[in-house]
Amino acid sequence: MKRTKVIKLLQQEPGGDVLVKGWVRTKRGNKNVTFIALNDGSTINNIQIVCDTASFDETLLKQITTGACIAVKGELVASLGSGQSVEIQARDIEVLGTADPDIYPLQKKGHSMEFLREIAHLRPRTNTFGAVFRIRHAMAFAIHKFFNDKGFVYLHTPIITSSDCEGAGEMFHVTTLNLENVPKNEDGTVNFNEDFFGRQTSLTVSGQLEGELGAMALGDIYTFGPTFRAENSNTPRHLAEFWMIEPEMAFYEIEDNMDLAEEFIKYLVQYALDNCKDDLNFLNNMIDKELISRLESVVNTEFVRLSYTEGIEILEKSGVKFEFPVSWGIDLQSEHERYLVEKHFKKPVILTNYPKEIKAFYMKLNDDGKTVRAMDVLFPKIGEIIGGSQREESLEKLEQRIAELDMDYSNLWWYIDTRRFGTAPHSGFGLGFERLLLFVTGMANIRDVIPFPRTPKSAEF
Ligand code: 4AD
Ligand code: MG
């Protein structure tokens, strides 16, 4: 007999024999009847298994404890109890794997998130993490669907790279050199000619530079892959390894870029509301009572668009004493972003035209010579969820900026070539996948929306 998943069983009419396999959530009962709540990960909902206690071997029933894995054959019958329409009247139970109640860590309900992070190998078996990881999957699928339906090409950009896209120097080195005995040049610097790639390489912080090459040939592309940042930020919003979605579009000006970003996020939130109802209802009840209303409100409001300069004015006039003082030219901190979004406008904000000094080298310079066509999308509870820009398409201006910043031209010659041959206006942005998931799930810490988080001093599992 073939196994049926719980999600399907719960939608079936009663009647007929079924086989179900999963992990025991709870067992209760007496000498007449035993009830087992079984979950197989296909849905947040459990199926109830009903056993006539006397007709099962006592040692077998003893092995059915929280966390054990069992296979159950029986009849799917209408349920008399409340909470489910069907249940399984068990005829045959096989214990596939026991879970010794003395040492299985997921006994009681209500473990802290911190404790669950220490058992990241088992936390997917909790309701909360099951819900989060199913939603994570649904969002990944919806991202591909959104772009595929619009005719974007999914371009795989490299993970090992020799350029620092964001120029922040926060890269993890990739090397096969013997760290105990590093080959040196005569001047004492490391001789990377001897390294695997014959040059210094790192894990990428962004697929954008290669994404731009794709856009200059295929028109509309997107990347969706892991990115790495060796920034020592111990915050609920930073990971050292996170996933990023980066669309890049030929012939897009900054306004088109903003339109796409807004449409994209609204599409994803609506997709979650339409397709992840059970999981969202659970998270709404258990994690964040305003989750669903916040999701609905984002789908139904127009994002505010305003310039960095206007944003600074609002912050200066607010009378609030921020930890980091506000003046034109500062890099906005999360407290500033959240003030604009949560207190002042009470809706998502797209900030544009930032000072060029606080943004990356590739952004298009405005006519004022001071600001660039950057755009950051700021969200309630999250702060920056998207960062993007129109790109500098002028060869002369791009070369000038690279020189000003004293960047290594020899690592970027291929990028600059796109401005030499058939250059065109183009724009793009990066959505942090885990920041999106923080918003969609209502979870408070970014470590709890990725299965195996990588953060400073932490890379177990
Ligand atoms: O603003 P960022 O650094 O922009 C870029 O990397 C551009 N190359 C994107 C582009 O234009 N194609 O990063 C983009 C987004 C941020 O808005 C944030 O959501 C997320 O990536 N992000 C992080 N998420 C988790 N942990 C970190 N350490 C993150 N750093 C950035
Ligand atoms: Mg940014």
Task: Describe this structure as you would to a colleague.
By secondary structure, this protein is an alpha+beta fold. 31% of the residues lie in helices and 24% in strands. It has an eight-stranded mixed beta sheet. Strands 1-2-3-5-4 form a five-stranded mixed β-barrel. Helix 4 (127-149) packs across helix 6. It is elongated, with a radius of gyration of 27 Å. The two termini are 35 Å apart. The mean pLDDT is 96.
At a glance:
With 461 residues, this protein is of the alpha+beta class. Helices cover 31% and strands 24% of the residues.
Please name the defining characteristics of this protein:
461 residues, 8-stranded mixed β-sheet, 5-stranded mixed β-barrel, 13 helices, 16 strands, 24% strand, binds magnesium ion
What order do the strands of the largest sheet run in, or round the barrel if closed? Answer: 6-10-11-16-15-14-13-12
Largest sheet: 8 strands, mixed
Structural class: alpha+beta
- SS strand fraction: 15-25%
- Helices and strands, in order, run as HEEEHEEHHEEEEHEEHHHEHHEEEHHEH
**Ligands and ions found:** 4-amino-1,4-dioxobutan-2-aminium adenosine-5'-monophosphate, magnesium ion
- Cα radius of gyration in angstroms: 27 Å
